[in-house]
Model the fold of this input.
Amino acid sequence: MERRVRVRFAPSPTGPLHIGGVRTALYNYLFAKKHGGDFLLRIEDTDQTRFVPGAEDYIIESFRWLGVNFDEGVGVGGNYGPYKQSERKELYKPYAEQLVKNGWAYYAFDTAEELDKLRKEAEAQKKTFQYDCNTRGNLCNSLTLSAEELEKRLASGETFVIRFKFPKDTEIEVQDLIRGQVVINSNLLDDKVLFKSDGMPTYHLANVVDDYLMKISHVIRGEEWLPSAPLHVMLYKAFGWEKEMPQFAHLPLLLKPDGNGKLSKRDGDRLGFPVFPLEWHDPKSSEISSGYREQGYFPEAVINILAFLGWNPGTEQELFSLNELIDVFSLDRISKSGAKFDLEKAKWFNHQYMLQKPAKEIAQLFLPVLQSKGIENVSSEYLEQVCTLSKDRVNFVSELWEQASFFFQAPESYDEQVVKKRWNETSAAHLKKISEILNTAAFDKQTLHDEVANYIQNNSLNMGQIMNCLRLSLVGAAKGPDLFEIIVLLGKSESTKRITKACEVLG
RNA sequence: GCCCCGUUCGUCUAGUUGGCCCAGGACGCCAGAUUUUCAUUCUGGAAACCAGGGGUUCGAAUCCCCUACGGGGUACCA
Done:
C-alpha cells in the first residue's frame, strides 16, 4: 500500500528565513499538494543559544504572505503535536537511551574543552581529530569506563553526551530521489552527538525521532544535509524503523549571484536584491534587511521565481500560478547543481504579474504610495484609470509614482533636454491654438486626436515637434502613455491650465 | 587535509532510454519595426564546440575513467 505523503518544513528560528529556505518549503508544499498529502511546519529550536526572538512569527508570517499554507504544525495544530521541539524536550532522552541499551550509542564524558584540545593538537600535526571507531577506545566514555565507574559518574549527575556508535567497515547507502544512490564507508564518519549535555537532542536525533513520530514520508531538504544523511539512515536502522524511513531528496543550493559560495544573508543588500521574503529588523543589531514584500514584489511572482530556481517543468511555459505549479511539479525535474539568483529575471517575472493583475488591485497597492506623497482625495475611478494606463510600463508598484506622478500634480519643471530639442519661439502660439481645440471639440480621445492632427497638417507643421511640446506641457517630460489618453483623464480645465502655464514659463 | 555532491550561452535552463543537437527556450544585451515621447509590444541577431583530456561506439552533451574547477560537509549549529 502506498504511504500517505507527509512532508515537513523544519526551520530553526535563528533569524529570518532566507529565500533558499523558502524555496525548500515551496518544493515540499508543491510535492505534498501534488500527491494529496500533508505539509507540516515543525520548529527545530534545540539550540537554545541561537534562539532569536521573533524569528518564529517571521516564518509564519512569510508563508502567510506567500499563500503557502501548512496543514499541520506550529501555528495551526494537528494530531502529532507539539510541533516545536523545545516543547517535546522530554521525549527525546528515552530514545537516545534506547540506543545505548541496544548497543548503537554510548555515553561520553569528554568535555568540550578536552575535545577542543585534541582537535588543536591534531591540527598542529596537519591531521584531523575525529571521535570515531578509531579513537573512541581511548576516550572517556561508557565503552572504556568500567561498569562501576560508569555507574558512579551517572549517579553523581556528571554531565554527558550520548554519541552514535558507527559500526566499522560498513558501506552505508543512501537513496536520494534527486541524486540516486550515494555510498559512504562508515569508517570515515564520526560518532555524532545525539544528545547534548544540556538535556537537548541534537538535530540528528530530534529530526529522525520526530519524522518517525510524525509519520513523515519524504524528507526534502537542502544539500547541506547530504553528508549527514548516512547517519540518519543508520539511525532508522538502529531504531528498527527501516520500514518507516522516509525517502530523501537533497535540493541543490542557492548560490551568490556574483563570485562563489552559497547565498548568505549579507548578499542581499550588498547586491541590491532581497534575500528575505519580508523585511527583517534584527532585534540585537537593529540592522534592517530588505524583503521581497517591501521591495514591491508580488507574492505570486516570488513563488514563480523561486520555483524556477533549480526546477523547471520541461516545457516552455514560465508563468505559473501556485495551483498550476502543483499540477506540474515533480522531484525528478529538480536539477542537481546550484543556482544563482538572477535579479533581472526576477524583475521580469514581477513585470509579468504586473501585466496580468487588474488595475483595481494595483490601485489598492498604489494608494499608500500616493498618501505618502501627500496626494489625497483621488477618486478610485481616476486612480484605477491611471493604473490601467501606467502599470504596463513598470516592474513594481513603487515605480508607478515616478511614471505617473503628473496625473496627480502639474509639472513643476520641464525636462531641459526636451525643451532644447523641441521647444521654439512658435511653440507657445501653436499650443494656444491646440488649447482652443481642446475646449471646443468633443472631449474624447479619438476626436481630440483627429482635430489636433488636422491642425498640424493644415498648418504644415511637424507632428513630432508639436506633439512633444504638448506632452512637455502636460507631463513635464518625454514619458507617459498616449497623449490623448492623458488629456482625457486630466480633463479639459486641468489640461488647458497646464498648457497655459507651460507657455508662460517657456515662452 | 579528508569525505560527499556537482560542471550545457553572462544567468536560469531544455536536452532523461546515445543518432531528429554543428545544441532549443527564457532573462539580459544588440539591431530593426511600430509610435507624438518614454515604456510596452513585435521581428531579427550575437551569445555555450556541451569544464579539459582520454576511452567505448558506425555515431556521445548524453556511457566509462582521469584531471581541473565549483559547491557542501567535517561542532555538545541547524
